[in-house]
C-alpha cells in the first residue's frame, strides 16, 4: 500500500487552495486580502502549487482604480488529477471516472450483478483494474477512489447492507492494501449530500433529503458531516409515523420508509391501479392527466414526507434542505406541496428546493470527498450554485 497524496506542510496552503478552487480566477492580491496572509507567503505558496501543476496562470484581471499593471489570474487545474467512484448496490455496479470538477471522463455500468461477500473483491477489483487502464494521463494521477454503499457506513467500515451481505467483510482495508491511492467508503445518500453542499450551495449548513429505495437525510455543517455514534445519524426513513404499521427491516414497525420510499410508492400504486409494473414515469403521467386517485395518492405521500421534513427542521434548524430522488425529479411540484405543509414559524427562513444534480449528486459527492481529503481542505466549496433552483419559504 502506498498513498502518496498531496502533503500540506502548512495549513495556509489548504486555505489558499480552497480560495482558488471556489473562485472563477483570482489574483495574488485578492488571495492576500481574503486569507490575511502577506504577499510573500502567497507568492511562495502559489509558486509551489504552480510547480506541481495544481494551479495555472491565465490572462489578466481588472486593473486598480488608479490604473497600473493588471494582475495575473490564478485558476485551479481541474485536470491535474482524476477522481473515481464505484457505486455498489444489489443488481448493479457503476464506475465513474471524473476530473476534479464536474467533468466526467467516462462511466460504465454492469447490471444483473449478484454481489456477495464471497465474490465482491474479485468482481470489483477486476472492474477497477479494467477502468484504470482507460484513464487519461494526469500530473497527479488518481487522487482517490470512493465506494458508494447503499447501507450504513461507520468510519469506512460497512456496518449494514439491507440487500447484500458485503457488510461481513472489511472491504476498505482489502482495497487499500491493493491500490496506491486513497480509498474512501461512504453511504450513497451521504455522498449526495457532499455533492449538493460543495457544488450547488453557498450555505454552510445543508440537509440533503434523499429518497430512493431507502430514505436518508445527510446533515452537513461547515464541511463536517453529522454521522452519529455509529454512522446512522440522518436515518429519517426509520422515523415511526404509524403505530402498529408495516414491519420494517430495521426491526420497528410503521417507519416512514415503508410508505414513502420509491419501492413503497411503486408497491402501493400498483395495488391501487392493479398494475404489475410501475415506475415514476407512469405515476407522473397519471398525476399530470388529473387522475383523481393518483392525485389523492400523491397528496397522502406528500403529507407523510412533510412530517419527516418538518422533523428535520425542528431538530437541526438548517439553512437549506435539498430534495433528491426520482420522485422529486419527475414531479418537481411536490416541493411546493411540501412547502405548503410547513406551517411552523421555525421554517420561515428555510430554503427548500429540488436538487439540481439528481443522480449526479453521488458522482459530485465522490469528487468533493476525494478532493477534500487529498488536498486536506476541511470545508471544500466550489460555489457554483444555480440561483433559479433556490426558493425561500414565505
Describe this structure in words.
- Keywords: Carbohydrate metabolism, Xylose metabolism.
- InterPro entries: ATPase_NBD, ROK, WH-like_DNA-bd_sf, WH_DNA-bd_sf.
- Pfam families: ROK.
- This protein is an alpha/beta fold and 394 residues long.
- The protein has 3 domains: 11-76, Winged helix-like DNA-binding domain superfamily/Winged helix DNA-binding domain (Arc Repressor Mutant, subunit A); 81-193, ATPase, nucleotide binding domain (Nucleotidyltransferase, domain 5, 2-Layer Sandwich); 201-361 and 385-389, Nucleotidyltransferase, domain 5, CATH 3.30.420.40.
- It is built from 13 helices and 15 strands.
- The strands form 4 sheets. Strands 6-5-4-7-10 form a 5-stranded mixed beta sheet.
- A hairpin with a 2-residue loop joins strand 12 and strand 13.
- Helix 2 crosses helix 3 (39-51), helix 6 (188-200) packs across helix 13 and helix 10 crosses helix 12 (334-341).
- The longest helix is centred in the last third of the chain and has 25 residues, at 292-316.
- The radius of gyration is 23 Å and the shape is globular.
Brief synopsis:
It holds the Pfam family ROK. By secondary structure, this protein is an alpha/beta fold.
Give me the number of helical elements. Answer: 13
User: Architecture of the largest domain in CATH?
Assistant: 2-Layer Sandwich
Proportion of residues in β-strands: 15-25%
Unreliably modeled segments = 385-394
Give the strand order of the largest sheet, numbering strands 1, 2, ... along the chain.
6-5-4-7-10
- The secondary-structure element order is HEHHEEEEEHEEEHEHEEEHHHHEHHEH
CATH class descriptor name of the largest domain: Alpha Beta
Organism: Pseudolactococcus carnosus
Protein name: ROK family protein
Keywords: Carbohydrate metabolism, Xylose metabolism
Family: Belongs to the ROK (NagC/XylR) family.
Amino acid at each position: 500500500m502506498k498513498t502518496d497524496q498531496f502533503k500540506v506542510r502548512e495549513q495556509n496552503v489548504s486555505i489558499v487552495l480552497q480560495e482558488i478552487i471556489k473562485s472563477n480566477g483570482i489574483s495574488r492580491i485578492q488571495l492576500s486580502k481574503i486569507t490575511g496572509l502577506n504577499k510573500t507567503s502567497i507568492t511562495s505558496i502559489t509558486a509551489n502549487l504552480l510547480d506541481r501543476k495544481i494551479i495555472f496562470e491565465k490572462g489578466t484581471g481588472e486593473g486598480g482604480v488608479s490604473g497600473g499593471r493588471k494582475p495575473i489570474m490564478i485558476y485551479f487545474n481541474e485536470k491535474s488529477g482524476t477522481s473515481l467512484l464505484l457505486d455498489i448496490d444489489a443488481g448493479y455496479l457503476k464506475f465513474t471516472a471524473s476530473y476534479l470538477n464536474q467533468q466526467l471522463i467516462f462511466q460504465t455500468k454492469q447490471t444483473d450483478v449478484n454481489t456477495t461477500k464471497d465474490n465482491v473483491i474479485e468482481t470489483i477489483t477486476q472492474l477497477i483494474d479494467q477502468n484504470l487502464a482507460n484513464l487519461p494521463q494526469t500530473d497527479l494521477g488518481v487522487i482517490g477512489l470512493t465506494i458508494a454503499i447503499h447501507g450504513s457506513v461507520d468510519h469506512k467500515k460497512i456496518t449494514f447492507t439491507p440487500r447484500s451481505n458485503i457488510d461481513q467483510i472489511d472491504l476498505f482495508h482489502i482495497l487499500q492494501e491493493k491500490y496506491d491511492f486513497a480509498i474512501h467508503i461512504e453511504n450513497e445518500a451521504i455522498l449526495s449530500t457532499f455533492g449538493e453542499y460543495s457544488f450547488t450551495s453557498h450555505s454552510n449548513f445543508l440537509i440533503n433529503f434523499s429518497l430512493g429505495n431507502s430514505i436518508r437525510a445527510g446533515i452537513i455543517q461547515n464541511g463536517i458531516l453529522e454521522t452519529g455514534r455509529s454512522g446512522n445519524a440522518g436515518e429519517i426513513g426509520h422515523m415511526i409515523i404509524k403505530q402498529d404499521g408495516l414491519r420494517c427491516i430495521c426491526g420497528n414497525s410503521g417507519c416512514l420508509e415503508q410508505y414513502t420510499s420509491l419501492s413503497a410508492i411503486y408497491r402501493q400504486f400498483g395495488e391501487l391501479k392493479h398494475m404489475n409494473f410501475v415506475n415514476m414515469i407512469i405515476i407522473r403521467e397519471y398525476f399530470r392527466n388529473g387522475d383523481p386517485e393518483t392525485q389523492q395518492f400523491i397528496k397522502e405521500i406528500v403529507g407523510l414526507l412533510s412530517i419527516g421534513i418538518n422533523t428535520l427542521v425542528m431538530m437541526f434548524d438548517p439553512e437549506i434542505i435539498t430534495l433528491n430522488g426520482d420522485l422529486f425529479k419527475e414531479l418537481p411540484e411536490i416541493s411546493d406541496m411540501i412547502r405548503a405543509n410547513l406551517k411552523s414559524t421555525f421554517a420561515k427562513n428555510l430554503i427548500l428546493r429540488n436538487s439540481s444534480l439528481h443522480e449526479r449528486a453521488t458522482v459530485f459527492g465522490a469528487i468533493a470527498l476525494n478532493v477534500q481529503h487529498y488536498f486536506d481542505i476541511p470545508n471544500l466549496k466550489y460555489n457554483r450554485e444555480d440561483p433559479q433552483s433556490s426558493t425561500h419559504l414565505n
